[in-house]
Amino acid sequence: MAPSDFTNPKSVDEVMAGLADNDYLADEGLATSIFLSLTLGRPLFLEGEAGVGKTEVARVLSRWLGGRLIRLQCYEGIDSAQAVYEWDYARQLLHLRTAEATSDDLDASRLEAELYDERFLIRRALLEAIDAPPGAPPILLIDEIDRADDEFEAFLLEALSDYSITVPELGTFTAERPPRVVLTSNRTRDVHDALKRRCLYHWVEHPDFDREVEIVKLRAPGVADSLARQVAAATEAMRGFGLYKPPGVAESIDWALSLAALGRESIDETSVKATLGTVLKYREDQDRVANHGIPDLVRNALLRGG
Amino acid sequence: MEPVGTTDEVILPVDHGERLAVGFCRILRQAGVRLPLSATIAFVEALGLVGAETRDAVYWAGRATLIHRPEDIALYDRVFSVYWQKRMGETVSFEGTPQSVVLALDLGEDDDADDGGDDVDENESEIQPVRFSRTEILTSKDFADCTKDELDELTRLMSRLAFTTSQRRSRRLTPAKGRGDRPDLRRTVRRALRHHGEPMNRAYLEKATRPRRLVLVLDVSGSMEPYARALIRFAHAAVVARGRVEVFALGTRLTRLTRHLTSRDPDIALRAALPEVKDWAGGTRLGEGIREFNDEWAIRGMARGSIVVILSDGWDRGDPTQLGEELERLHRVTRELIWVNPLKATPGYAPLAAGMAAALPHVDRFIEGHSYASLEQLAIILAGVGSDRVTELRVS
Ligand SMILES: Nc1ncnc2c1ncn2[C@@H]1O[C@H](COP(=O)(O)OP(=O)(O)OP(=O)(O)O)[C@@H](O)[C@H]1O
Ligand SMILES: [Mg+2]
Fold first, then answer.
1. Which of A216, B218, B260, B366 could form a Cys-Cys staple with B272, CB 3.0–4.6 A?
2. If you compute the radius of gyration of chain B from its CA atoms, what whole number of angstroms results?
3. A42: nearest CA in chain B?
């Protein structure tokens, strides 16, 4: 159940239940940080390895709380024109030309007012989130902030402290109800302390064995119980192998689905070899796992997973 | 809640439980976690929301508000268990005051922090060959043979190394002077307006250049002790002068020093950085250390397209094949992998250390680093990597 309209959840347990209703199993740490972020009205900063379920948190929040999901995918070189707003210069130029062609007495200041009208404004994620229509506040997902550069961080810090954006030609937009903000980072680089301190922070770990089994069962419903357990056991083991890209929950789910598609209810050497590509995306990771010994991996998974 | 008092001694108008929370934060801060007052306030607020009845609630409220990087989690856990453990059992009424909790904290000491002063012994000049200035001799002297005063002087010289950077084109676009990479419609519209609507003067954008990232990995194990201090000083000079520099210390474990070296004042920076290296002059497991560096940082992105410099004598107690493998991984993602070895200049030195031998096939350059002059040379090389021409090193 969603908390009525857009009121905040009353407890950490309510958060856990709300997320679980939407197919996301959070542990107490993550649920606490989400709860605090919602109730204190501060952004949530989720950091951790690839595939541990960071981005999914924002999606699930949007489903649960009913706010629209607005996503800003960061990349090197992103700037405010891609994140906040941009004028539609091509259309402005066209407008200029037309004005020029149809009138021989151009009033520059009137023309300027016409040009910098909202209809020529291209709204990007941040402006959309801040100038949102009434109703449940949107969920603003700022994904993979570690890929953007420092200048952009500084800019975000400012935008997230007063939830207002000034477009010099139009004036200032201020959020009536601040959006709920989720930032994620894979930590390819340290994000500035000042930005993190604005946020509630949670370092997202791979789930423990039991939780991972539950997640696989939830997200891959057709899969046999035994298979889910064995897959969770094998992925957990592989995370200790020092791989380039250790498998995340997403990979466990995919793997369980492909094994089930092969008609398995239990893993064995042949099926593991055939499906290893769904868990490990790099050739050398596959080699590394093969070097560790697939028979061993299977045996231990069967022992652990039963 | 209005905080009053200085940053050191903050007095919050708090009740008993809150005072306990503030005490906890103070100890965390002493333990080395960077904690602004706003974090303490957020923690107290968070406790008000989740309650302080269960250990887990308090633990997670603190984690969400006080900790902002995974490296601090272990420290947090230790302090938490000592500080709260006893109290949680005692019920909600929080007995005792935070001041009564004493934790033994290993903060490290920088005992060489005092300033040596500029007065080097002038009498020495009479025993010097006439052709060389004293400084010239000093700059080629092996760090290991220098007296403390000489080292002080050399490290002072390092602030004068100006690292001109090798540039890498970034995807961010900046306004171009003339005809650039892409038409800049924004400026074109502005100009057109100024000229009554006629888009006569087209503006362009071009790609901005940014320095390539430079990653320095300093071996701080026992055998490197004579050099480590000078090398860290070199790293500091690079951080201050150049931008986009990352610094790690590698001993029995890997420590990221970057943030501690950012102060412009080298003494302050070193005082901040040295206690971070807990295994100063301990043993080395180079291969394991580079693996950690690869897994935690390098392969994930930090080393991609970057210049990575390892400053080490190559003595390794670990498995040399691992070192070879890890360097091979690292080499694949870097723009240039450079190994600086202070022993290279030692007469008769051949890369005998098994670790060094395993490393050599995977490095782009293998250079010396025993003296100021050799580090100056390194700075020149760094300035040249990745740019078309070798830029001159400026020494002001
Ligand atoms: N706790 C969880 N409960 C349910 N499903 C989960 C959970 N964690 C992860 N998943 C599943 O794993 C998938 C991958 O998660 P997500 O894309 O959020 O990872 P991420 O941490 O953002 O990774 P990346 O860094 O690669 O973007 C999700 O689509 C979801 O199906
Ligand atoms: Mg993601």
1. B260
2. 26
3. B42
